[in-house]
Structure formats: structure tokens, C-alpha cells
Amino acid sequence: MNERRSTPSSSSAPDRRHRRRSGGRRGGGARRRRGVRSRLLWAVLAAGAVLVFAGGLALREGGEAATDRSAGPAGSPGPSASSAASARPGPRGAVETQKAETTEKEKERTDGTEGAGKVDPGSIPSSGPGTFATAGGGGERVGGSGRTLTYVVQVENGIGIPARDVAAEVERILADERGWTADEIVGFRRVSGGASDFRVRLATAGTVDTICGRYGLDTGGEVNCNVGQDVMVNLKRWLLATQYYADDVTSYRALIINHEVGHFLGHGHEGCPGAGRPAPVMMQQIKGLHGCRTNVWPYDAEGRPVTGPAVG
User: Fold this and answer.
1) Angle at CA of residue 64, ends 60 and 69, nearest 5°
2) Is residue 158 part of a domain?
3) Contacts of 121 (CB under 8 A, 6+ apart)
4) What's the mean per-residue pLDDT of the chain?
5) pLDDT value at position 82?
6) Cα-atom radius of gyration of the chain, to the nearest Å?
7) Which of 74, 131, 186, 305 is the most buried (most CB within 10 A)?
């Protein structure tokens, strides 16, 4: 029996190829879409990670800026832990106390005596070169209408005290209304050169002993003297005073100047006039008060002389 084989028509093959090509394009498009979605997902995740890292870095830098606002310019070292701690503000009272203490220390350093009354005795030189620096300038005349006594102020070289500071203190003492000018006769004027009536000389104990010893006086490394035209001031006494004036060194300096200038004016030693009364300035108070009260002026505030019995 003859069977007729059916063969695909020429139109069916292109249809299958078309379907295959169509199916291939649909599959490739799906893969591409999945690839795009995957890349988008990774991009989103990566962007999130960058944002998280940047946020953490910003927080870190912000924290450092908040805790160290005193840092210097870029590249310069910041303050140490100790300096940062010292920069923290404390209670107002503590700050004011610290300022007061600082002011007091600065005052001591600029006093010209390196902290009068608070000096270590062992730090005071016992001897020097025996040469002197004279304070420059000059002062106005002070005192009464009688003779004017001129004087210079000198400080031994190498003791660390400016002559100008000592001169200012001596001028203040001799100009005081309770001083020797209270008699309304004697007057004083400081000069810096030429001839002068007397010299106030601040020197080490060794130099004082040497100069005073030339006139037969034994100052023993402890006391002051007046010999010839020299009012010799022992550096030790100038800085430390004595036991009776240990808390008021400035007053004791007035006693030194008034006592030794008193000798230059011709006054001798005096004793205590009575218990509870002020000690005369010509009394050797370093040897004891003998019942008297401390006093450093030859006259009182009313212009009356403070005297006592003469001591031979």
C-alpha cells in the first residue's frame, strides 16, 4: 500500500525557528533583568555601608573635637593630659585664691629683696667683693629749713639687690613725718654723684665687719654700724630683721636707717623709758626690749620725740 509521507511544509520550519529565536530572546531578557536587579541590590548595599562608615567617622571626629577644643593648628601637638587637666575651670573661689597667691609671689619677686622676711638664711652671702654700685638719679629735698644733708645709696656688688630699690626705701624712710626731719631743722636729699655728707651702704656681713672694724668696732657679722660718713647696713639684718620684727621686716629697715643716721647726727644710745612704753629708736633693740614696745621712729605721730635714759 502506498502511503504518502507527510513532510513539513515550508512554512512550518520558519515558525519553529521563529519560536526558538523568540524563546531565546525571552530567556536572555530575563537573565539580563535578573543581572540588573542583582547589580542594583549590591549597589544599594554598598552605598548603605559607605553611609554607615561615613556616619561613624563623623561621630568620631565630632567626639574628638568636643573633648579637645584647645588643640592647636593642624600638625601641632595638642596639650598633654596634665595641661588639659590644669585648663579645666574650677570653682570661682579657687581661681581667685590662685590669682591672689600668684600676685603675692610676683610682688615678692619684684620687691628688690627677693621676698623680704621669707628668705632662707643659708642663701644669704656672708661676704662679697667689697665694691659697690651707686643708685642713679636723685631725690627732692625733704625736711626742715636748716642744713640739708646729702647722701648716696650704695649696694655691694653681687648680692642680687638693685641699688635703685634700696634707694627708694631709704628715701621713703628719711622723708617720713615721724623721722628725723620732724624737728623741722634737718633736711635730706639723695644724690648720685659728687660730694655727699654720708653714704648708706648695704653690704654683706663680712664687708660690714671689715669697714666697721677699721674704726675699732666689732659688728660680729650680725649688726650694723655708723663709722665716719658710712651708714653700714648688714645684708642679713636687712633681709631677716630680728626676732622682734620677724613679721615686719619693712619696719625693721626703718629702725636700721633711723638708728644709724641718728648716730651720724650725733645721737647716742638710749635705754627703755619704762615698761609698756615705746622703745626709743636709739635703743639697741636687737639686744632686747626690756619691757618696752617695738618702735622704729624717733618721733611719734604727734611730733613728740621718743626718748629714754642715756646709755654710756
Assistant:
1) 150
2) yes
3) 236, 240
4) 76
5) 30
6) 48
7) 186
CA angle 141, 143, 148 (to 5 degrees): 60
Q: Specify if 147 maps to a domain.
A: yes
Whole-angstrom Cα distance, residue 168 to residue 175? 11
CA–CA dist 185, 265 (Å, integer): 12
* Domain boundaries, position 234: 123-242+249-268
Q: What's the CATH code of the domain at 256? A: 3.40.390
- Report the distance separating Cα 49 and Cα 295, nearest Å: 87
Beta bridge partners of 305: 299
Residue 179, all three cell numbers? 623721722
Burial class (CB in 10 A: 0-12, 13-18, 19+), 277: middle
Q: What's the confidence (pLDDT) of residue 90?
A: 38
pLDDT, residue 93, reads: 41
Which residues in the chain come in under a pLDDT of 70?
Answer: 1-117
Grid cell for residue 287 = 639686744
* Amino acid at residue number 184: E
What total number of domains does the chain contain? 1
Half-sphere exposure of 190 (CA within 13 A, CB side): 23
From the list 241, 215, 218, the residue with the least C-alpha distance to 229 is 215
> Quick one: which of 265, 164, 154, 152 has its CA closest to 207?
154
